[in-house]
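Morning. Coffee machine broken again, so started the prediction first thing and wrote up yesterday's gels while waiting. Chain of 116 residues, entered below exactly as on the submission form.
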Amino acid sequence: MDAAGNELADRVRALLGADTEIEERRMFGTRAFLDDGHILVGARPGGVLLVRVDDENGAALLTEPGASRAVMGSRTMSSGWLDVAPGAIENDTALMFWLDVARESTGSAADAPGQN
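Came back before lunch.
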């Protein structure tokens, strides 16, 4: 992973740090953050954020600045996998938006303390 990807992973780790249920793993050239074995987000090379969302919301989220369908190798993923460009997550508020979106899509936000 390059410096931009590592920096993004550090930021994600810091923002999710209070959640002891989150597991971090290297997967597919990405630093993935998982909840209950499911990928929430991943820090990709170049500082791109991979975000897992439900397909229904994914199509609507494609209208957000910097969001596009994720591409892995030569394959364009379903609307449930989004790449968010580094410029769209430059500050922690913007990054937290996408972390919350991922957690809501997997239902983990409802289980997090103080989120009910």
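The longest helix spans residues 92-106. Going to sketch it on the whiteboard this afternoon.
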